[in-house]
Amino acid sequence: MKIRFCGVGGQGIVKAAYIFGNAAVIDGYNVVQTRTYGSAYRGMLSKSDVIISKKPIYELEFLYPDILVCFSQKGYKTYKGGIHPEGLLFIDSDLVQLDIMHSHIYKLNASVLSYERFGSKLFGNMIMLGYLTAIVELISKEAMEESISQKTPGGTEEENLEAFEIGYNIGLKEKSGFLKV
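Now predict its structure.
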């Protein structure tokens, strides 16, 4: 499974991918993660790719992700053309306006939900991780929670876990048909 997280610096793109990859390791997968970002500047394009497999992984890069997770318009415009035809597209619907048709689109206003609950958009990445985890069912919820507890800054674990839970619950409701996007 090839997953690309993209957005701009300051949105926690690399952190989200790192937590997701670490959770996959906890669940017994082999994982490779790469990242590209202009970390010196907020607002610069940022991407992090994660490859997850039960088999050994012999590649570091890919062109066509199975899952593309977009946190910004800039990231979406840059990487939208590379998504696998049967791939899944996840977007922060407050920050990304779609201009292509794709058969598997999942929209969540993660940054708005983060701001409404925490007074900051900083937890939007964890909300999206929860949503992604519930929809895709690749990584266990327990592994994600363990990874979040291990890899988030001290003193923020509870907020990050709560944000994850918000997204996870929305994803479960959407999958069961209670929410239609």
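The longest strand covers residues 45-53.
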